[in-house]
Amino acid sequence: MSLTMSCAFTTSLQTPEHVRIAEELGYERAWLYDSPAVCADVWTQLSRSAERTENISLGPGVLVPSLRHPMVTATAIAELVEHVGQERVVVGVGSGFTGRLALGQRPCTWAYVADYIRALKALLRGERTEWDGSVIEMLHHTGFAAPRPIDVPFVVAAFGPKGMSVASELGDGAITLAAMPYDGFDWVTHIVFGTVLEPGENPGSDRAVDAAGHAASVMLHFAIEFDKLDMIPGGREWASAYDDVPPETRHLTVHDGHLWAVSERDRPFVTGDVLASQGLAQDESAWRDKIAEWEEGGATEIAYQPAGPDVPRELEAFAKAVRN
């Protein structure tokens, strides 16, 4: 395989210790989520990961601009660069899926995301820029942050024409959850959820559901938020499990366990058939075939997010499947 081995970690369950394990297994990059309602602080976890590793690339995957002033983010990037060097840092930025929806907010506008990236890049170059009507500049002396200019790649989580336009203009690459053509990008990171089945294992086994069931729930949560329930077999019946939750707090219940576990409301609907039909519980051969399809479609990097009670097993099984 010519794909980069890469690993996306949810920091509410997976820890910097899992980043260390991923490095030992040969993963080249660890992305950590920026979803503070369900994950530990992304920059704290990146710094802790830096202290435990030597070679693996590190970065937020992806930042939600509305959560922090660009100066806060610029300083955090400079701190990580000071730890591990520019060559090991990458910055993912998006409009905010889990990071904002779990707070009861819609994603940021792409115009806001673009302005944020421009301001952030200007700060890292050591320039003055404007934000919230004021001129700002990184004023850190030696020893307080890495010296400017700081030149690290930016990858944009792009969905739809507006996101693709921002990624094309301001990004070095794109991050996607969907299998879609990304013409014109030399760097396309495809995020992957699921588990590698043991020989003869049923997709509906307790182990498989524990390791991959959260991924089926992610698809439902997306469908609920964006009124796409018909895209999921039985999606409307599944969504009805939330009918008794008041609208003003539904986003909290929907995101219970989001990205790392199956909630009690979702579990009756997460069957082996669902996991198999969505390609979330497959054997090694099927995973290799699917990765080949993504590569044919333009993916240059696979970012695998492990979950469940045995994350080291998931990391090792996926690495083995890709390499065989």
Q: Quick recap of the structure?
A:
The chain has 324 residues and is an alpha/beta fold.
Write the topology of this structure.
Blueprint: E1 4-9, H1 16-24, E2 29-32, H2 42-52, E3 57-60, H3 70-84, E4 91-93, H4 98-101, H5 110-124, E5 129-131, E6 134-136, E7 154-157, H6 160-170, E8 173-176, E9 188-193, E10 195-196, H7 206-225, H8 235-239, H9 250-254, H10 272-277, E11 281-282, H11 284-296, E12 301-305, H12 311-323
Parallel strand pairs: 1-2, 1-12, 2-3, 4-7, 7-8, 8-9, 9-12, 10-11
Antiparallel strand pairs: 5-6
Gross morphology is: globular
Question: How many alpha or pi helices?
Answer: 12
- Into how many domains do the coordinates divide? 2
Structural class: alpha/beta
CATH class designation of the largest domain: Alpha Beta
CATH architecture type of the largest domain:
Alpha-Beta Barrel
Strands of the largest sheet, in order across it? 3-2-1-12-9-8-7-4
What is the H level of CATH, i.e. the homologous superfamily of the largest domain?
Answer: Luciferase-like domain
- Round the mean pLDDT to the nearest integer and report it: 90
- Rg calc: 19 Å
Largest sheet: 8 strands, parallel
The fraction of residues assigned to DSSP E strands is: 5-15%
Write the CATH fold name of the largest domain: TIM Barrel
Summarize the helix and strand pattern as letters: EHEHEHEHHEEEHEEEHHHHEHEH
The amount of helix comes to 25-40%
Distance from first to last alpha carbon:
9 Å
Low-confidence stretches: 8-13
Q: What is the count of β-strands?
A: 12
